[in-house]
């Protein structure tokens, strides 16, 4: 009798997030496969390891897939993704369609009824694209606020081991969600099996619309932004517009670690301004904080912005639901205007 494969996870995209998730899983002695572009696969195989620093300081061996448990199995060939397991896409939003197409052409193999997919991208459109390619029943809702950043020397800085949320898009959890959560927990990655993953996804998107919209256009760090009353008001105005789209889609927003959206919506904005801009006891009022949100980092580094996957998608959803979102529309247009990805060549 053929034994079913042990639960394991794969990651599509060996960038900041993909490397951190894969390395932490391997470090905990579990099998993991990392599908990279050919140049990055070659670089990782040549280096023979993934190096993390920051919130975790680790050097984890990397070798061609399939690799033994404890080593990150790296490949550029989607056919090497193991059958019967979960594949989490960790490309940028604008790279996702290409990655989905490449993976779907090879995986899951015929007869593999258990293989499933999830997307870690910001925004909501990822799950529609995954469902369109793999079938809705193969898609698990996923979101993460784990923070990571690739460095020029090849290392990845882990800026924060924030929570990862997993759940069935139809609501609740399932054996495959619980198995994936167990793998991540074993790896020291905080995980919540969300009873309502759509609430988590939309709440995170409310926060992303506010943070990216304000931070990219004003080039401010998140800590600096959340100390400035005017920027907090601008953030909240984008949160409220996004929340109106969520309401039109019947989604109940919630309070999550680092984005208490339900609380922001329930009270007056000036109360939130006062709460956020008040210096925390013992904090240094002169410190501005250096943490730049990822889209702001992308702008400053001349990389393409995930404008369409976050903002244009929200505007599109609002239009279809008959919700007016003039601020989100303005942010979409301004970001498109400065998007380095639109002005190459
Ligand atoms: N980083 C964070 O802290 C963070 C936190 C929460 C959410 N997110 C979201 O997560 C997503 C990934 O972010 P990231 O920071 O990890 O991005 P990233 O560092 O740019 O990594 C993306 C990776 O995907 C690879 N890739 C692109 N197309 C591919 C394909 N067809 N097949 C295989 N790999 C492919 C890229 O290849 P190359 O190596 O050739 O460039 C790169 O390694 C984004 O949507 C981001 O908004 C990020």
Compact summary:
The protein is of the alpha/beta class and 345 residues long. Helices cover 44% and strands 17% of the residues.
Name its key features.
about 350 residues, alpha/beta, Rossmann fold, 2 domains, nine-stranded mixed sheet, three-stranded mixed sheet, 13 helices, about 45% helix, binds NADP nicotinamide-adenine-dinucleotide phosphate
Second rung of CATH, namely the architecture of the largest domain: 3-Layer(aba) Sandwich
Order of helices and strands: EHEHEEEEHEHEEEEHEHHHEEHHHHH
Shape: globular
Distance between the termini: 57 Å
Descriptive notes:
- With 345 residues, the protein is α/β, with parallel strands linked by helices.
- It has 2 domains: 9-195, Rossmann fold (3-Layer(aba) Sandwich); 199-342, N-(1-d-carboxylethyl)-l-norvaline Dehydrogenase, domain 2 (Orthogonal Bundle).
- It is 44% helix and 17% strand.
- The chain contains 13 helices and 14 strands.
- It has helices at 16-27, 38-47, 93-104, 125-134, 175-186, 197-218, 222-225, 229-248, 261-266, 269-277, 294-300, 307-321, 326-338; strands at 9-12, 32-35, 49-54, 58-64, 72-75, 86-89, 116-119, 140-144, 147-150, 156-160, 164-168, 191-193, 255-256, 259-260.
- A 9-stranded mixed β-sheet has the order 7-6-1-2-5-4-3-10-9, sandwiched between helices.
- Helix 8 crosses helix 12 (307-321).
- The radius of gyration is 20 Å and the shape is globular.
- Residues 285-289 have low confidence and may be disordered.
- Bound molecules: NADP nicotinamide-adenine-dinucleotide phosphate.
- NADP nicotinamide-adenine-dinucleotide phosphate binds next to helix 1, helix 2, helix 3 and strand 9.
- The site of NADP nicotinamide-adenine-dinucleotide phosphate has 31 residues, from helix 1, helix 2, helix 3 and strand 9.
